[in-house]
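Retry 2 of 3 after timeout on previous attempt. Resubmitting structure tokens to design endpoint.
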């Protein structure tokens, strides 16, 4: 009884024109039996009495779609084609610049990652050369890793 309470209340108020608060308990139960009979036999006058939440959700979605269609069907009142075209071109250029910047960032990040991997390998090689006792090779690698000295 409690899961269908909102639907029952709406049905009682709209179809039967009866206020739920004014009913005694036994009459409320009788009305609920009648409500469930209509529910089970699918004889409600409207789909909304089966599931109020879904009904109002669908109704809101339809309103949203109508609102979007209304916005799309508005007529132009300003006929300044040259200005509109200039604005479109500016927006396209901005998008292209943003795409170029993103591509540059991506390439820089991948390049930096490659450089960092290379430096890590050089450090490992330098440590290995020190362990072997080859100080000249280790010093050469150290000079190569030093950021202030050009290669």
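Retry 2 succeeded. Sequence:
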């Amino acid at each position: 009884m409690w899961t269908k309470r909102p639907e029952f209340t709406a049905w009682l108020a709209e179809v039967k024109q009866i206020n739920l608060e004014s009913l005694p308990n036994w009459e409320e139960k009788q009305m609920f039996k009648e409500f469930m009979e209509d529910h089970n036999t699918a004889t409600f006058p409207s789909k909304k009495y089966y599931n109020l939440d879904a009904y109002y959700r669908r109704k809101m979605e339809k309103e949203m779609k109508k609102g979007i269609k209304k916005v799309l069907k508005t007529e132009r009142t300003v006929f300044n084609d040259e200005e509109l075209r200039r604005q479109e071109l500016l927006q396209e250029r901005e998008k292209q610049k943003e795409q170029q910047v993103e591509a540059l960032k991506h390439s820089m990040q991948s390049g930096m990652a490659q450089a960092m991997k290379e430096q890590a390998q050089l450090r490992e090689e330098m440590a290995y050369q020190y362990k072997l006792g080859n100080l000249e090779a280790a010093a050469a690698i150290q000079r190569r890793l030093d950021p202030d000295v050009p290669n």
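Attempt log closed. Helices lie at 5-14, 25-41, 52-72, 81-132, 135-145.
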